[in-house]
Write a structure and sequence with these properties.
Shape: globular
CATH architecture of the largest domain: 3-Layer(aba) Sandwich
Strand content: 15-25%
Helix content: 25-40%
Oligomer: single chain
CATH topology of the largest domain: Aldehyde Dehydrogenase, Chain A, domain 1
Number of helices: 15
Distance between the termini: 86 Å
Length: 525
């Protein structure tokens, strides 16, 4: 697939592609090579205001369509995503840096979400409940809230937008979407698909840009619901902004300091696989990536030796190469953050076991010799350009005051923590964090698994699996400071709709319907 043509992206507002109120543009960069992928117009609060105007005006007509009619629009998008999985997966990899199989998986998850949302249009959307009175019917109906603002991250630049957009639109809402500033090309392609599918003018709007555009979405009181997936810092600000505004809803999925507990009854092959996948897939840049491996003393030595050995061998390199396991981080700010926390771990007394943080700029990764220079003579598979780091692994004695094991890094920065005692001792360490997003337990003892299931303070949990898996039909969200609500699948319906309880009288006698046996009139009336 060739991407060499000049690329300029625009906003899509009220059925028109537009440069917006300001001609300023920003560039999308390939984090593996530093190559500029395109220029995109930077949205302003004025552009957001126009998009909300369009969405608010389009809402009444869009909501009048049946669920089935609204879903039909998305079926075209579903087929487009399936037909273009390889092509769009390559764009995902080029723009956010995750290796190619994950780029394709991002698109697969997107069309799974569209399939779920559009298919759900033919399922029940309310509840019939028994009434206390035989003459009455009682039931609940859902109705769309109105304008939904969607603010999505760069690490799943196709999948997560559809978690938000697909459900919101099928439920009868209109949308104003701000893609992540690191992945505007993916946002542009998604918008083009929606337009080609025939979404009516104003129903779906896209404003590219930075935090000021996102803030404008949050601050506009006509935006009835805000769906956000991203950093804890930004998410908490959104929650504070909307928390005191009656009538507005929010669903936030944010960060985590996720842990895997490996008990004395673990299958070690399975434990190692789960730990490596959870720690280094997507270069540790998933909100569910594991940065804490909490391992029982009986199996700690074996686990440490095997995990360290694999961390030393993780294939870091060109994310478009099928043999790569770990690509670059997304940008230079993330490189700097990664190094700051590595330094912090050392300052706090950690024993460093693997330090591949500084990759040799001239190094050509194993198996990539033939790809050191592309056909055009420009792209190198080495580390001299782009935003590269390798695994950093350390062990540390548990201490509730250590910042390195309590603050999210969002990179391949992994702590090994040994514990003694029973599963409650592991839980005490695991739950000692302000976050509560994802976790896994590796054990062949079902009692330990059940205890962890009941006491782990998380929104997503796995047994004998990595903690990075997700399926679109399940809720995806956390507890504590990891979020509010779950902006995906069935659970996001709660945020983008309102329920109305209806009671219908089937009797001609209102007194019977109210359960009254006596005449309520007084004598002489």
């Amino acid at each position: 697939m060739s991407h060499e043509h000049e690329r300029t992206g625009r906003h899509y507002v009220d059925g028109e592609w537009t440069a917006g109120a300001d001609e300023e543009t920003f560039e999308s960069e390939n984090p593996a090579t530093g190559e500029t992928l395109g220029a995109f117009h930077r949205g302003t609060p004025a552009d957001v205001e126009r998009a909300v105007d369009a969405a608010a005006e389009a809402f009444e007509e869009w909501r009048e369509l049946s669920y089935i009619d609204r879903a039909e629009v998305l079926w075209d998008v579903y087929h487009e995503l399936r037909d273009r999985t390889d092509e769009l997966g390559e764009v995902v990899t080029m723009e956010c840096g995750k290796e190619i199989s994950e780029g394709r998986a991002d698109v697969v998850e997107a069309y799974h979400m569209v399939e779920w949302a559009a298919g759900n249009a033919r399922h029940p959307h309310g509840d019939v409940v028994p009434s206390e009175i035989a003459a009455k019917d009682s039931y609940m109906r859902r109705k769309p809230r109105g304008v939904v603002g969607c603010i999505t991250p760069w690490n799943f630049p196709v999948a997560i937008p559809f978690w938000h957009l697909a459900v919101a639109l099928v439920e009868g809402n209109t949308v104003v979407w701000k893609p992540a500033e690191q992945t505007p090309w993916c946002g542009q392609i998604v918008a083009e698909m929606m337009v080609d599918a025939g979404v009516p003018d104003g129903v779906f709007n896209v404003v590219q840009g930075f935090g000021d555009a996102g803030n404008a979405i949050v601050e506009d009181e006509r935006v009835d619901t805000v769906l956000f997936t991203g950093s804890a810092e930004v998410g908490h600000g959104i929650g504070d902004e909307l928390g005191g505004q009656p009538g507005r809803e929010v669903a936030l999925e944010m960060g985590g300091k996720n842990g895997i507990v490996v008990t004395e009854h673990a299958d070690m092959d399975l434990a190692i696989h789960a730990a490596v996948m959870s720690s280094f897939k997507t270069t540790g840049q998933r909100c569910v990536s594991s940065e804490r491996l909490i391992v029982h003393s009986d199996v700690y030595e074996e686990f440490r030796l095997r995990f360290v050995d694999l961390a030393e061998q993780v294939a870091v390199g060109d994310p478009l190469d099928e043999s790569t396991f770990m690509g670059p981080v997304v940008d230079e700010s993330q490189v700097e953050k990664f190094h700051r926390y590595n330094d912090l771990a050392r300052e706090e007394g950690a024993d460093v076991l693997v330090d591949r943080a500084e990759l040799d700029p001239e190094e050509i990764p194993d198996g990539h010799e033939d790809r050191a220079t592309a056909a055009d003579g420009e792209r190198s598979a080495g580390f001299e350009n782009g935003h590269w780091v390798g695994p950093f692994v350390y062990e540390v004695d548990y201490d509730p005051n250590l910042r390195c094991i309590h603050e999210e890094v969002f990179g391949p920065h992994v702590a090994l923590i040994e514990y003694e005692g029973d599963i409650d001792d592991a839980l005490a360490i695991h739950n000692d964090t302000k976050y509560g997003l994802a976790a896994a337990i590796i054990s062949e003892d079902y009692r330990q698994i059940n205890r962890f299931r009941d006491r782990a303070e998380v929104g997503l949990a796995y047994a004998n699996l990595p903690c990075i898996g997700a399926e679109v039909q399940l809720p995806f969200g956390g507890v504590k400071k990891s979020g509010k609500g779950a902006p995906s699948a069935r659970e996001v319906i709660e945020a983008v709709t309102e329920r109305t309880a209806w009671t219908l009288n089937n009797s001609t006698d209102v007194r019977m319907a109210q359960g009254l046996s006596a005449d309520i009139t007084t004598e002489g009336d």
